[in-house]
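Hi C.,

You asked whether I'd gotten around to modeling the 98-residue construct. I have! Everything is below, sequence then structure, no commentary in between.
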Amino acid sequence: MLKMDLLHLTKEQLADVVAMYCTEIGVVKSVVILQPTTGAQRAYALITMAVQEELDSVVNLVGDGQVGMMAVVYLEHEERPVPSFLLSRANAPSVAHA
């Protein structure tokens, strides 16, 4: 599980924050956010990593399961400031979003 501000970030921004966290583990190929509506207090991230060992690490560290070659991570709302990299960078996502 990862805690982040689900009320004030778009799905694209949430995907960027999840990707930033997982980049510390390995190479992130894609992040898909499943959230009923923007601002809902619960969501899931489906994360695809470059190699199986990195995927296993994501599942073991923050994951709630695995579906095929994707780690499933529950996102829980916690009021937090918007990460500065989201405020300062141009809208050019670093990983694929669906």
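If it helps when you're writing up: The CA atoms of residues 29 and 35 lie 20 Å apart.

Thanks,
B.
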